[in-house]
Amino acid sequence: MATSSDIRKGLCIHFNNDIYKIIEFLHVKPGKGPAFVRTKLKSVTSGKVIDNTFSAGHKIEDVRVETRKYQFLYAEGSTYHFMNTDDYNQIELQESILDQPKLMKEGEIVTVMINTENNSPLSVEMPASVVLEIVHTEPGVKGNTATNATKPATVETGASINVPLFINEGDKIKVDTEKGTYIERIKE
Fold first, then answer.
1. b or e along 45-70 (b: 16 or more beta carbons within 10 Å of the residue's beta carbon)?
2. Other residues' Cβ atoms within 10 Å of the Cβ of residue 121
3. Each residue's pLDDT tens digit, 35-48
């Protein structure tokens, strides 16, 4: 058993007869009244995101998890295929438990959280950033750089990301997997 003070990003808990992963949290200590923790929870079974507030000292039942490295092989509709990098066993996961499936390219190494009670996969954590190649973007307009101007670009995985005007097709960029935003251009 844990308490509300143990809440952190990525923690999996039993809540409302389901298993949820904490994706955001904020400890709040108002000037008047007791402290509380505001959370955003994502169901690992349905992918539904809910908001919940836990009062200070509230008991929560955490799920014992184990992390393993898997390599993303390919996607088939909404089913994603992964291979364990240690024993080469393959697993299939549904798109609903993936955080950013559009940013995952084949061969990417991800961390899969597995419930130790029944050996079922709970969630897939991407690396903090990934390097992707731009396959389509409109050319930037010269002289339009007074403000932080961006334009949409399609990367090799099919995702659309806003990038600065100087980015061209064929450039490789680093993308933040948590927010799905551009970080920097990669020089080769």
1. eeeeeeeeebeeeeebeebebeebeb
2. 19
3. 888 999 888 777 78
